[in-house]
Specification:
heterodimer; A: alpha+beta; Glutaredoxin; five-stranded mixed β-sheet; 5 helices; globular; B: 183 residues; alpha+beta; Heat Shock Protein 90; six-stranded mixed β-sheet; binds adenosine-5'-triphosphate; binds FE2/S2 (inorganic) cluster; binds magnesium ion
C-alpha cells in the first residue's frame, strides 16, 4: 500500500462508516485492557496488542475495544491483560503472548468461554455481583 | 529484560504522560550513522533534587510498581548511552517541562535492537491521555509526521478495532515509504 495521507485516511474512514450498520456499541462491547507498564512492555505487551488487533480483524469483530493501562503491579505474570465481556466475569490473564492473545479472542470473546489455564485472577467483587 | 530502543522510547514518552503533559513532541531520526531521539514535554518537570535521583536505577517515585519499586526508563537510557559511547541528556524545569534527548551510534554492536516503531507509535497514540502527541519521524532524510489530535479528529475514538486498524495502516504505510531506499 502506498503512503497514506491524512486526507486518504479520512476518506477510508468515511467509507467504513457508511458500510457500518447502525449499531449501538458503547457500553455493550467487549473490552481488552493491556498492561503497558515497563515490565509488561519488556515481556511483550506490544506483541500482544498486535496479535489482538490482528485476530479481531481476521474474524471481522469490529466493536471490541482495546485500551491500555500502565503498571498493573503484577510484573511476575506480564504481559497482563484484563478482559471484560458483557455478561461474563471480568478476568485478568497473565503471561499473554501472541498465541494466548489469539486464543482469548477465539475462546473468550467469540466463544464466551474462559481460557482457564491463563487466568491470573478473578476479582472477588465480580464473582459476588 | 529484552527491551528494544522502541521500548525505551515508549517508556520515556509514558514518563511525559505520567507527568501530566498536554503537549509531547517525539522526534525519532535515523541518519546513516546515528539514531537521534528527542522527547519534549510540558509536564510538571522535576526539581534539581529529583532530577539527580531520577538517574538512579533504584529510584522511582514510589507510587508505581508496588512490588518492584525500581524505575527502568531513565537508568536504562543512561546505561545504554554509557555502554555504547552515545550521549543522553535530560533537562527539566519544575512546572515547565522536561526534554530528554539521546544520540546513539547505529553501528555499535552493543546497541539494543531498534524494535518495531509502527507498533510503538500506534500504542502511544492510542494510550488514552488527554494531551496531544506529535511524532516526527525521519530516516535518511525522508520524513513524515503524525499528530494525535489530527488523527483523533479523523478517526474519532482511538480504542475500537476499526480506528486502531486504520491508525496502524496510516503509520505502517508512512514507515514503509521512508524506510524504502528505492522511492
Ligand atoms: N518527563 C518527565 N517529567 C517529570 N518527571 C519525570 C519525567 N521522566 C521521569 N521523571 C521522574 O523520574 C522518575 C524515574 O523515571 P523512570 O522512567 O526511570 O522510572 P518510573 O517511570 O518511575 O518507572 P518505570 O519507567 O520503570 O515504569 C519518575 O518516577 C519521575 O518522578
Ligand atoms: S509494569 Fe509495573 S510491576 Fe510490571
Ligand atoms: Mg518511566
Amino acid at each position: 500500500m502506498a503512503k497514506m495521507t491524512l486526507e486518504e485516511l479520512r476518506n477510508l474512514r468515511d467509507a467504513k462508516k457508511k458500510e457500518m450498520t447502525q449499531r449501538d456499541t458503547n457500553d455493550k462491547s467487549a473490552q481488552i485492557i493491556i498492561g503497558m507498564g515497563t515490565c509488561g512492555i519488556a515481556a511483550g505487551a506490544k506483541e500482544a496488542f498486535d496479535a489482538f488487533l490482528d485476530e479481531l480483524n481476521s474474524h471481522e469483530i469490529k466493536d471490541t475495544k482495546i485500551t491500555q493501562t500502565g503498571c498493573m503491579g503484577l510484573c511476575f505474570s506480564e504481559p497482563t491483560v484484563e478482559v471484560d465481556v458483557p455478561g461474563m466475569p471480568r478476568v485478568i490473564y497473565g503471561n499473554v503472548d501472541g498465541k494466548i492473545a489469539r486464543r482469548i479472542v477465539k475462546e473468550h470473546i467469540m466463544g464466551k468461554a474462559l481460557v482457564s489455564d491463563h487466568i491470573f485472577d478473578k476479582p472477588a467483587a465480580d464473582i459476588i455481583k | 529484560m529484552h527491551a528494544t530502543i522502541c521500548d525505551l522510547i515508549t517508556d520515556l514518552t509514558q514518563n511525559s504522560i505520567e507527568a501530566g503533559a498536554t503537549e509531547i513532541h517525539l522526534k525519532v531520526e535515523e541518519t546513516k550513522t546515528n539514531l537521534n531521539v528527542v522527547i519534549a514535554d510540558n509536564g510538571k518537570g522535576m526539581s534539581a533534587e529529583i532530577l539527580g535521583k531520577a538517574k538512579d536505577p533504584f529510584y522511582s517515585d514510589g507510587q508505581k510498581h508496588k512490588h518492584r519499586r525500581v524505575g527502568l526508563g531513565l537508568p536504562f537510557l543512561f546505561q545504554t548511552a554509557e555502554m555504547t559511547g552515545g550521549t543522553a541528556t535530560i533537562e527539566s524545569e519544575e512546572g515547565v517541562g522536561t526534554t530528554v534527548a539521546f544520540s546513539f551510534d547505529r553501528a555499535n554492536v552493543d546497541l539494543p535492537m531498534f524494535g518495531n516503531f509502527a507498533t510503538a507509535a500506534v500504542t502511544l497514540m492510542a494510550y488514552g491521555f488527554d494531551g496531544n502527541l506529535i511524532i516526527e519521524r525521519s530516516v535518511n532524510g525522508k520524513s513524515y509526521s503524525a499528530s494525535k489530535n489530527e488523527l483523533a479528529e479523523v478517526l474519532g475514538d482511538l480504542s475500537n478495532t476499526e480506528s486502531l486498524t486504520l491508525l496502524k495502516q496510516f503509520i505502517q504505510t508512512n514507515e514503509k515509504e521512508i524506510l524504502n531506499p528505492n522511492i
